[in-house]
Design a protein that fits this description.
alpha/beta, TIM Barrel, Immunoglobulin-like, 3 domains, eight-stranded parallel sheet, five-stranded antiparallel sheet, globular, binds 1-deoxynojirimycin
Length: about 525
């Protein structure tokens, strides 16, 4: 195979990064919540799966009003998960297994239990403590109306009034007050936090809500507003990230930004060589299972990354998004938060076939790939009983939106054990669906046709096939239902999104297929194959 493996410090350009939602990964101490000892005990599984890095959703001290995205202290691990010493051990042990660690920083907001916010509440209007946040008087005769017309990302009014009459801004839940990024102390503190974690050996940082931090100091109404958006994608952000990049460069660390932006030119600005290394590809993630749409999403992605020389990322789901198997089995196979509803039917067999094909598609594209825990087990979205729902998205929508708990259910490890081997000795924080044992990792490990076996084999091949790291992508097919492309000179990936089987392109060998082929040389619908040519 021509091409070469990437240089060691370019690992992130084509890495496979596995997202660990700690709460639901593995419960080491049996208390119902996943934890760091659970992750440590499963490092051999992750090494065998063949991932290059782990991204941990926030593991810091938190009242968990938003699953840890409400951070009370970045330098303390939440006691439900473990201790700082244990996090350090985990980072070191993972590295010994060849796996790097990425932590999650949430700069837009903190928890309302964070020392800064408690001090701001105690200090009162006009105080320097309040200047770290966005406190404002209300509108209306008695200040009884919110200061502007913005809407929370979780629905409802993004302002909460405190006892002395002032309001504070929270683009997410009320327990997540937004920081004032125009304040130098906010910037300084985050630069210190980055150093704190890089000094502990982490290889990268995921940046939560990366395009929301900077606010127009006037906090103007959105209705009738002209000019730059008052809180989305403001130009000031680039200066902040240039500062962060200088720190990452001291440690050889990398960033992945959560940047939801429809405008590809604006998106690419975050990936300029002195800013973030990578950002999540939401165009691909939200794209329906449709040949033309996927081809367009891939082309647009590659075109927007090329001028800034940043690698693309390929993501099919995460802890916010409906699980892939369920989404691809529905009539509408795209994803939008606004269209999430209860009771949307899904053909899980069809969804699984497509998810298998999508796995081979995304693992064959140039760039890095994110894999969300349980995706390698083909887990569907779980139905969480309403009395067990935890997600603030559900509560803030007054129960209209199902929220995100369905993709956050604890993982099944062992078919024959209580709670499918998640590790809890009593009911876990979210219930496991009754059929989870059928999908348990130990069962799948024995079955060559399982999703786990497919991922293991694809990742094993990906490590050995240099073309998948450095080979350029060249399209070989046109046609609405067929995606065929070469990586370098010796490898071809073909995906049939139609109903009817198609002839395989010329090849010298079949490396891996997402499902059984039709005879010797026909690729059935919703199936993908990697070919040697
Ligand atoms: C994006 C995270 O992925 C999500 O889980 C969280 O609720 C919001 N940012 C707020 O931090």
């Amino acid at each position: 195979m021509e091409g070469s493996q990437p240089a060691a410090d370019d690992w992130w350009r084509s890495a496979v990064i596995y997202q660990v939602y700690v709460r639901s990964f593995a419960d080491g101490d049996g208390d119902g919540t996943g934890d760091l000892s659970g992750v440590r005990s499963r490092l051999p599984y992750l090494a065998e799966l063949g991932v290059d890095a782990l991204w941990f959703t926030p593991w810091y001290l938190s009242p968990m009003a938003d699953g840890g995205y409400d951070v009370a202290d970045y330098r303390t691990i939440d006691p439900a998960f473990g201790t700082l010493a244990e996090a350090e051990k985990l980072i070191a042990e993972a590295r010994e297994s060849g796996i790097r660690t990425i932590v999650d920083i949430v700069p837009n907001h903190v928890s309302d239990q964070h020392a800064w916010f408690r001090a701001a509440l105690a200090a009162g209007p006009g105080s320097p403590e309040r200047a770290l946040f966005h406190f404002r008087p209300g509108r209306g005769e008695h200040g009884e109306l919110p200061p502007n017309d913005w809407e929370s990302e979780f629905g409802g009014v993004p302002w909460t009034r405190v006892a002395d009459g002032e309001w504070y801004l929270h683009l997410f839940a009320a327990e997540q007050p937004d920081l004032n990024w125009a304040h130098p102390a906010v910037r300084q503190e985050h630069e210190d936090i980055l150093r704190f974690w890089f000094e502990r050996g982490v290889a990268g940082v995921r940046i939560d809500s990366a395009a929301l931090l900077a606010k127009d100091p006037e906090l103007p109404d959105l209705a009738g507003h002209r000019g730059s958006h008052p809180y989305l994608d403001r130009d000031e952000l680039h200066d902040i990230y240039r500062g962060w990049r200088a720190i990452a460069d001291e440690f050889g660390g990398i960033f992945v930004g959560e940047v939801w932006l429809p405008d590809s030119e604006r998106f690419a600005r975050y990936l300029r060589p002195d800013e973030l290394h990578t950002a999540f590809n939401f165009t691909f993630l939200t794209c329906p299972w449709d040949g033309e749409r996927l081809r367009r999403a891939i082309d647009e992605t590659l075109a927007e990354h090329a001028p800034v020389k940043a690698p693309a990322t390929w993501v099919l789901c995460n802890h916010d998004i409906t699980r892939t198997v369920t989404r691809y089995g529905r009539a509408d196979t795209g994803f939008a938060f606004t269209s999430k509803a209860f009771g949307v039917p899904s053909d899980l067999e069809l969804g699984t076939r497509r998810a298998r094909a999508a796995a081979l598609l995304s693992l064959a594209l140039p760039g890095s790939v994110y894999l969300y825990q349980g995706e390698e087990l083909g887990l569907p979205e779980a139905d969480v009983p309403l009395d067990r729902v935890q997600d603030p998205m559900y509560f803030r929508s007054q129960g209209r939106a199902p929220g995100r708990d369905g993709c956050r259910t604890p993982l099944p490890w062992a078919a024959g054990e209580p709670y499918a081997g998640f590790g809890s000795t009593g009911d876990p924080w979210l219930p496991l669906p009754p059929d989870w044992p059928l999908r348990a990792a130990d069962r799948q490990a024995e079955d060559p046709a399982s999703m786990l076996s497919l991922y293991r084999e694809a990742l094993r091949l990906r490590r050995t096939l240099a073309a998948l790291h450095t080979g350029p992508l060249r399209w070989l097919s046109e046609g609405p239902d067929l995606l065929v492309f070469a990586r370098g000179e010796n490898l071809v990936c073909a995906v049939n999104l139609g109903d009817a089987p198609v002839h395989l392109p010329a090849h010298t060998g079949i490396l891996l297929a997402s499902g059984p082929l039709d005879g010797e040389d026909r690729l059935p619908g919703d199936t993908a194959v990697w070919l040697a040519v």
